[in-house]
Amino acid sequence: MIQNYSTYTPDDQAVWELLFRRQMERLPGRASQAYMDGIVATGFPNARIPDFERDLNPRLLPITGWRVVPVPGLIGNRDFFELMADRQFPATTWVRSRDQLDYLPEPDMFHDTFGHVPVLTNQSFCDFLAALSRIALRFVDHPEAIDMISRLYWYTVEFGLIQEPDGLRIYGGGILSSPGETIYALESNVPERSPYNVATLLQTPYIIDHFQARYFVIDSYEQLFHSVPEIEATLEGLLVS
Fold it and tell me: How far apart are CA 34 and CA 52, in angstroms?
């Protein structure tokens, strides 16, 4: 599949610019420094939809060896993890409509690229993603193991928080692309914020249709990568039992 850039309408471009500017007003002081640095490093265009091959990949590839590849929408587990293990981040190419600015049932390109791509400039985070994907491919035919990996992915890559020297920050793309959850995740007294713990996280169900009841907080991206052997050992124990 290719990103057919010529099919984007003026309204698509206007929606992108609105989404981008709205989030960039909220993220300074709330997003992880790695994310904010990544916005600059990838040269994210603010006034138009990014072209994967002209805007993002020429900058991202030399930094961490990752690239963004277009996919038609949600794809199967095996296809998803094969791409990620090969350091290719799958992103949809369609943009939400104006009546979906605050919520949509499945990820669009704003979520996939604006939410995730800037953090792909962090080497430890990228190494974690590739290693986790290789593990997932080992267990791709084991539904219980894939459920556990999905929880871990959800509470880190999608809805993860990180404790940085200046305070608690966001690195999960599902939060970074959501104006409401950006504020809620850090400033509401409703959700529980727990230290990152592999055993606990793998057993914690997640919420798909409203803000999370619980977030997990890492100390560093290196902590994520160094937890990979524990993740694999836990899943291996599941198969033995």
Answer: 20
pTM of the complete model: 0.94
Here the tokens at position 192 are 């529980």
Q: What is the mean pLDDT of residues 85-112?
A: 88
Exposure pattern of 39-76 as b/e (b: 16+ CB <10 Å)?
bebbebeeeebbebeebbbebbeeebebbbbbbeeeee
Tokens representing residue 133 in the block: 């994907």
Distance CA 129, CA 87 (A): 8
Tokens of 219: 């100390």
Instruction: Output the CA–CA distances (angstroms, integers) from residue 101 to 104, 117, 172, 177, 189, in the order listed.
Output: 8, 20, 19, 10, 25
Nearest-angstrom CA–CA distance, 222 and 123: 9
Residue 36: name the closest of 171, 190, 133, 159 by CA. 171
Residue 169 backbone phi and psi in degrees, to 5: -135, 170
**Cα 209–Cα 214–Cα 219 angle in degrees, nearest 5:** 125
In CATH terms, the superfamily for domain 5-240 is Aromatic amino acid hydroxylase (1.10.800.10)
Q: Cα–Cα distances in Å, from 161 out to 46, 51, 108, 132, 166? A: 24, 28, 22, 18, 13
Q: What is the largest CA-CA distance in the chain?
A: 56
Cβ pair 140, 99 in contact under 8 A: no
Average pLDDT, the chain: 94
pLDDT in tens, 175-209: 999 999 999 999 999 999 999 999 999 999 988 88
